[in-house]
Amino acid sequence: MFPRRLVACFLLAAAGAGCAQAPRPVVAPPAAASAALDSAGLAGPFVRALVARARAAHTLRGRAEIALSAADWEGSTQAEAAILAEAPGRLRLRAYAGPVTAFDLVARDGRFWAYVPDRHEVWSGPADALERRLGFPVRADDLVDVLLGRPFGPPDAARLVSLDADRAVLAWDVPRGGSVRATVRRLDGAALSYEWTRDGRTLAVLRADDFVREPSGLWPRRLSLRWTEPEASLRLTFREQQLNRDLPGGSFEPLAPPGVAQIDLSAAPDSGSAWERAR
Amino acid sequence: MRARLAWLAALALVTGRAEAASDPVARLDRALRRTHDVQARFVQTRKSPLLAGEERATGSLWVRKPGDARVDYRDPSPMVIWKRGDSTWVYVPALAQAVVSESGAAGVPVSWVLGASLAEVRREADVRASGAEVEIRPRPDAGLPWSSVRIGFGPGDFPNRYVFVDPAGEEVRIDLREVRTNRGVPAERFRPRFPPGTRVVGGS
After folding, report:
1. Position B147 in a domain
2. Could you report the per-residue pLDDT of B116-139, keeping only the tens digit for each?
3. CB < 8 Å to B51, chain A
4. Which of A32, A40, A218, B164 can pair with B146 through a Cys bridge, CB separation 3.0 to 4.6 Å?
């Protein structure tokens, strides 16, 4: 599985590199640097593009199709959803099953509240308890970082790893351990993918696609996240999204619908995921 | 004198009929009594307090008393929901997967009304007239996911407009179009069937 993914990544990169008639890159290294290898100078424009993207958005509001799968699950799930994100670490995700709400999640300040209408229950607890409960290796604050264009830590100290006609690959250390490699499209500075590795193993891969131009720059409408330990994936396809808008009041208030049971998951059993162990 | 009494009696009869005809609860009762099966196209419009604008979905539905329903969503994401008794199958072609659950009425809300009689609806909810519409408020112990349903009428005095509102303010409007009733929908239509290779997952 692991080598196959590397092969797939290689094939994708090779296919991307084959655009012989690509327009002139808008994120170009300084001309003087092309003669001599000046890693810092070459990396500068790309790092600035990544940093600008990481700082561009403080809120996101959108309607998306969300698809989830995890090794511990019997199957996958796909639903239409309303998604609100606000820095730092505030998330609202309301998923629908046809005409009814299937799941409503609020996460903020390291805690979560998840309303499951079908069970007439609200689950709550510290952020990592939801991960343990669902066996899904992502925390809400990490997802907020992904949605707001700053996955895997700040890229301010990124260094250039490789450069070809179409792509630049940059790397930086991840505060929780390991490093991330980001592939940036030179044509427009779009960050196409991020791969987080540690001790030679890939822990997570984020791919971005279908970019639209927002006032704050290019923004992907399709995000695909894969984790390896345990195997899990999350795909978001935005049908509409708005950046840096005021969000409705009360969007991140704890959920407490009348007449539902409150279930405290603070003591939920550990799923033993790699993501959690990495913290 | 005798002529005046006859005139008053006739007037009372006409007035009573007019009131019955305009009472939306009576109209719903009549429609449900005479409806054994329904097939229609639908437009579903969702308004969420979390988002600006509306989300539209379209498809077809079939309902057959007692307790069978099927909804085919076509746009924007294909999905088929079958409801048989208290079980619901949700088939998502993009995932090649069907999930079976015991979600009961929540799977196909329109069939909660159209697949029942007014007396059955009243076992779980309070029903009253609200202008030209019927307003249904499920009782808290009914376990239904919406807090109110408004029903309006269309051609043939058929209840073809439904607005479901849940406690969080999510509003889903379902407009039925090209409604055909009592045409004898084949039983096959309500039998969950999936293409070969579909993963069927037993729900909670």
Report:
1. yes
2. 999 999 999 999 999 999 999 999
3. 61-63, 82
4. B164
Residues 92-121 of B with CB under 8 A from A: 92, 94-95, 97, 99, 101, 103, 106-109
Range of the domain at B181: 21-202
ipTM: 0.78
Here the CATH number for the domain that contains residue B124 is 2.50.20.10
User: Collapsing DSSP states into helix, strand and coil, what is residue B195?
Assistant: coil
- Measure CB to CB from residue A78 to each of B52, B92, B174 and give the nearest one: B92
Q: Would you list the DSSP string of A158-193?
A: -EEEEE-SSEEEEEEE-TTSSEEEEEEETTT--EEE
Both tokens assigned to A168 = 């630049």
pLDDT digits (tens, 9 = 90+) for A132-188: 777 777 888 889 999 999 999 889 899 999 999 999 999 999 988 999 999 999 988
Shortest Cα distance, chain A CAs vs residue B117, angstroms? 22
Of A77, A99, A259, the CB nearest to B44: A99
Considering the domain boundaries, does residue B79 fall inside one? yes
For the whole model, what pTM was predicted?
Answer: 0.79
Which of B50, B97, B99 is the closest to A82 by Cβ? B50
